[in-house]
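Explain this record to help learners:
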Amino acid sequence: MPKTCIRPQLQTRLINTPSQPKPTPARSHQKPQQDDLRILPATPSDSPAIADVFLHAFSDPFSRRMFPITEDVRSFWVDQFKHEIEESRAASTPSIAFLKVTAGEEGTVAAFAKWWYPVPEGMTSDGEKNQTKTVWPPSSDADLCERFFGLMNSEKKRVMGGRKEGYFCELSFFLL
């Protein structure tokens, strides 16, 4: 018998025994249900909700040391996400795609994903052309942020080399 975990807006079922997959009926003609999830392009106005999902998804002690839940940290991430979404939507050849997952009839942002596209020859992605040092929020641990993101970037270069393939950058979700 499946166990059910009831959240304020969604139900999640944990199944102990494997079952045969069943086809999902088309729902285009039906009104959205409370537990429907929708994948949509993110807009700049989604950046506050995306920042909240991000900060709650990365809530372990290490992430909290880099980015405590403070107003300046939240504002920093709202601005970062808004800028990246605006740039990707305005570019004739976007290098980043942002998707959001909304839940329920009210469209609460429950998750988001960030995807880096391969860039055409002669162009650079935003991450490669942005050589200015990031100004971290005052309440963040700037030294730890520099070391962590510096290591992430060097590992990306080591793994990707000079290849221009796109890659999945980030998936953040928050259980409602």
